[in-house]
Amino acid sequence: MSAPTLEVRGLAYAYPDGHQALFGVDLHVHPGERVALLGPNGAGKTTLVLHLNGILAPGRGTVTVSGLPVVRANHKEVRRRVGVVFQDPDDQLFLGTVRQDVAFGPANMGMRGEALERRVMESLDKVGMADFADRPPHHLSFGQRRRVAVATVLAMDPEILVLDEPSSNLDPASRRELADILRSLDVTVLMVTHDLPYALELCPRSVVLSDGVVVADGRTFDVLTDDALMRAHRLELPWGFDPRAIGNLPA
């Protein structure tokens, strides 16, 4: 197997108030994988994500992205390689037009002229939003804004795309459209989600984080059909949804 795109070893972290959020997390994600990060509220998922591009620094342990340590000296390159799409797209869209928002990151990295315009339009095309380049983001629907938020990250040409609750607040059609987009992207994906059917649909592998430690790592179907594991870590499938009736979905 190829070297991991993302490798976390022995990661521990306590907040300044003394709350210990992570207790020695090990995680590896390989090129091209789509991995779901599951767990109850308070499990440490957000704390883990904030270490992946250097927003938080480990109390103990290491994080590397394609062999590059996530340390202060490497933050600029790490933040290009690890693109985080936040749960609320309005946290990422703040300029006058969609085009300006998508151009913001690569322009800050020094890209200019035709190369920048090409990167912007390619990124928007990947999420089906090229026709909206000159629209103000606040005139778009929530689902469209989420797709533009994905494009702002794709414009940085990341190696790994980290999505925080990508299906939240989406209507069924927007949810399906985003799933189709994520399947089409040639990028490694780590998806933090409480939406267990979405995890099964999109991510062949799932990692379960609970009380700051990894308690399961395996096929998503196996995780979601392990009744004892699900019950022990407060993971609950929607009423009427049975993965066994669907079967193990293809990668």
TrEMBL record:
Q: Name one GO molecular function term.
A: ATP hydrolysis activity
Q: Which SUPFAM superfamilies match?
A: P-loop containing nucleoside triphosphate hydrolases
Q: Which InterPro entries match?
A: AAA+_ATPase (IPR003593), ABC_transporter-like_ATP-bd (IPR003439), ABC_transporter-like_CS (IPR017871), ABC_transpr_CbiO/EcfA_su (IPR015856), Co_trans_ATP-bd (IPR005876), ECF_ABC_transporter_ATP-bd (IPR050095), P-loop_NTPase (IPR027417)
Please list the GO biological process terms of this entry: cobalt ion transport
Domain (ABC transporter) spans: 6-236
Q: How does it sit in the membrane?
A: Peripheral membrane protein
* Cellular compartment(s): Cell membrane
Q: Which family does it belong to?
A: Belongs to the ABC transporter superfamily.
Pfam families documented for this protein:
ABC_tran
Q: Does the keyword Lipid metabolism apply?
A: no
* UniProt entry tagged with the keyword Cell membrane: yes
Please state the protein's primary subcellular location: membrane
Domain of life where this protein originates: Bacteria
User: What does the UniProt record say this protein does?
Assistant: Probably part of an ABC transporter complex. Responsible for energy coupling to the transport system. Part of an ABC transporter complex. Responsible for energy coupling to the transport system.
The alphabetical list of record keywords is: ATP-binding, Cell membrane, Membrane, Nucleotide-binding, Translocase, Transport
Q: What is this protein called?
A: ABC transporter ATP-binding protein
Show the GO cellular component annotation of the record.
ATP-binding cassette (ABC) transporter complex
